[in-house]
Amino acid sequence: MFKVAICDDDKNYRRIVKETVSRYSSNIGEIVFDEYSSGEELLADIYQMHNLLFLDIQMAEMDGNEAAKEFRTANKSAVLVFCTNYQEPTTESFKVQPYRYIMKDFGDRMLTEEMPDILNEMMARSEILYLTITEDGKVSRIPVDQILYVSMAKRGAVIHKYSNAPDKETSCRETVGELYGQLSEMGFAYAHNSYIVNMANIIHISKTVITLKDNTELNISRSRKVQFDEAFSNFLHKRYKRR
């Protein structure tokens, strides 16, 4: 199932977008639509975690650029498509990583031409696995392939990421055990009672030391070694078999 949001103060244009999406999505599974007539309405429903958002730039009160900034704080992976009658892209527009910039031309030619690529991008991004966490009272998602390991904290857990971004560590209120419930089927295993490791990001194991792809070294505890070795062996077997 894919969730598509359409935010535009023109009810007729929302209908056109919905019909165009439906026309090109007959072979990609169920589509659930949410319609919003203002940026404020969209942000009131921000944690729906939509896969695709069509967003009008010119709206009363909160404009599309402002709404997009807030939307991106909760949903960094959705495909964002700006729709406009006349406004040209600005540097502010590109900060929120729009996938397309659709002009509302006569006959909606551009919307129709771009729709196959938009839906293909939506499907491609939806194949990425995400970990859902609660951070500072807000729900957010982290791509699983970016996670190196998850460690215990005083309150909740810390997610350690392999990234060039400055936020290499993200705290959340969920415990390691609760996150393991989400991640156990995604290639994570306990190497120690205080942390779980993303086995896809291991580059070397030497006796009781794991080396991760950013060269972080973690110890495998004695109590977890047999269980971890078995989990890692099964992980490699499944990966090799899949390839």
Strand tally, please? 15
CATH third-tier fold name of the largest domain: Rossmann fold
Percent in strands: 25-35%
Secondary structure category: alpha/beta
Main sheet specs: 5 strands, parallel
- Helices and strands, in order, run as EHEHEHEHEHEEEEEHEEEEEH
Q: How many domain regions?
A: 2
Estimated radius of gyration: 21 Å
End-to-end span in angstroms? 27 Å
What is the number of helices? 7
The CATH architecture name of the largest domain reads: 3-Layer(aba) Sandwich
Helix content: 25-40%
The fourth-level CATH homologous superfamily of the largest domain is Response regulator
Overall pLDDT level:
88
Low-confidence segments, ≥5 residues, pLDDT <50? none
Compact summary:
This protein has 243 residues and is of the alpha/beta class. The chain contains seven helices and 15 strands. The strands form four sheets. A five-stranded parallel sheet has the order 2-1-3-4-5. Strands 10-9-8-12-11 form a five-stranded antiparallel sheet. Strands 13-14-15 form a three-stranded antiparallel sheet, with no helix packed on it.
Keyphrases for this structure?
243 residues; alpha/beta; Rossmann fold; OB fold (Dihydrolipoamide Acetyltransferase, E2P); 2 domains; five-stranded parallel β-sheet; five-stranded antiparallel β-sheet; 7 helices; 15 strands; 33% helix; elongated
